[in-house]
Amino acid sequence: MSDLPVPPGGRRITTEGHVFDILDLTPGDMLDLFSAAGASSGNSGFVVYASQICRVRAIDGVPVPFPRSVEAIKALGNRIGHAALNVLMSEGDGDVADVTDAAKNSPGTLSSGIASTS
Fold it and tell me: Is residue 1 part of a domain?
């Protein structure tokens, strides 16, 4: 199935006999991830790891829906497996950490030390 076109802006990795189509997360995807993560969205380690899982958009040419819950993120991570996740994590461009840090330190958030007034 590797003869299928790679999604625009994406790339393809092959590991353990499986082909994974990878796309970087958009700002909207990150918001969907925070929503899916629920209470875990405050855990930056979880968000970074989950964001790598959510970059997988197809496995062996079969589209993968974006996870909408922590359980769905776990299930997709288990489908992807350690080998593919290690490849994704090794790419570590820092974008997810930058987005998370920016969100934590933006004006009006408790961690920024700036209280918003209404």
Answer: no
Asked if the structure places residue 118 within a domain, the reply is no
112 and 46 in contact (C-beta within 8 Å)? no
Residue type present at position 29: D
CA angle at residue 96 from 20 to 87, to 5 degrees? 35
Q: Starting from the edge strand earliest in sequence, which strands make up the sheet with 62-63, in order? A: 11-15, 18-22, 56-59, 62-63
Count of the separate structural domains present in the chain: 1
Q: Determine which helix (DSSP H) or strand (DSSP E) holds 12, and give its type and residue range.
A: strand 11-15
The answer to whether position 93 is within a domain reads: yes
Range of the structural domain that residue 38 is part of: 12-103
Kindly report the pTM of this predicted structure: 0.70
59-108 confidence digits (pLDDT tens): 998 999 999 999 999 999 999 998 888 888 887 554 444 444 544 544 43
